[in-house]
TrEMBL record:
GO terms for cellular component: plasma membrane. InterPro entries: DinB/YfiT-like, Maleyloyr_isom, MDMPI_C-term_domain, MDMPI_metal-binding. It comes from uncultured Mycobacteriales bacterium. SUPFAM superfamilies: DinB/YfiT-like putative metalloenzymes. This is Mycothiol-dependent maleylpyruvate isomerase metal-binding domain-containing protein.
Length: 264
């Protein structure tokens, strides 16, 4: 059987190895379980009416409701066999039952993921792991005025989730729909990098073996900081309004083009 190795870049799987695919999904599911529990702890320490600094206009109540509806929508997606996010499912209960409802939704998605193996698509555990991790950070900011850290391998994988999947799903929407250029994204601590090619109506990302000589913009920095920038939790530009003073991500070249690889 081809080797499966957990490295700084996450789970490395030999091409065509289905058992390695299961190991990769198990890694994401473990992150979902861990980060989901941490989210509940932070949300429980906050007041439902507390503001969420990284989600302007949102309260903790809305954040908990949103994430649980995302988890429940993933259940529907897996059962329906789709690999694109469906409309958010279910309506949240009153405050007194909200966290119990959230925990129930988390357990449901974890159970469905386990039941769907070995035919579970990578899309769902990967997306749920990162949606939950980023929202855990949001909840901690609301509860403690400080967000916790990230595992570097998971953060790098979350950068990959943006450039490999999320941008592709938005390729037909402006401003991506009319963009053209190459953006190099580099995690300086894990060694992960992507060359993101933006063309009208199309986004693709490749993992270059060596550093490309030509690109139009570059984003580089520690994986955790790139994770927060690409998921819209840290500003790209110091003059952009934001809640954090961390400026460990370097942007060179066409800043407007670099900004297009963000989401959130």
């Amino acid at each position: 059987m081809p080797p499966v190795v957990v490295t700084a870049q996450g789970v490395s799987v030999a091409a065509g190895d289905s058992s390695g695919g299961r190991d990769r999904r198990d890694w994401w599911v473990a992150a979902l379980r861990r980060e989901g529990a941490a989210f509940a702890a932070a949300a429980g320490a906050a007041d439902p009416d507390d503001d969420v600094p990284t989600c302007p206009g949102w309260t903790v109540r809305r954040l908990v409701s949103h994430l649980s509806r995302v988890h429940r929508s993933a259940v529907i997606g897996v059962l329906d066999g789709t690999v694109e996010p469906p409309a958010l499912a279910a309506r949240p209960p009153e405050d007194a039952q909200l966290l119990a409802w959230y925990r129930d939704g988390l357990e449901k998605v974890l159970r469905v993921f386990a039941d769907a193996e070995p035919h579970l698509a990578d899309f769902w555990p990967r997306r749920m792991a990162h949606d939950t991790t980023v929202h855990r950070f949001d909840a901690e900011l609301a509860a403690y005025a400080k967000g916790g850290g990230f595992d570097a391998a998971l953060a790098a994988d979350g950068v990959g989730e943006v450039v490999e999947s999320m941008l592709r799903l938005r390729a037909a929407e402006e401003p991506l729909a009319s963009a053209r250029g190459d953006v190099l994204v580099e995690c300086t601590d894990t060694g992960d990098s992507w060359l993101v090619r933006l063309e009208p109506g199309s986004v693709s990302a490749e993992r270059p073996r060596t550093r490309p000589r030509r690109f139009d913009a570059r984003l580089s920095g520690p994986a955790a900081d790139l994770y927060l920038v690409l998921w819209g939790r840290l500003p790209l530009d110091p003059v952009e309004p934001g809640r954090s003073r961390r400026r460990l991500v370097e942007v060179t070249g066409d800043r407007a083009l670099a900004a297009l690889v963000r989401t959130g």
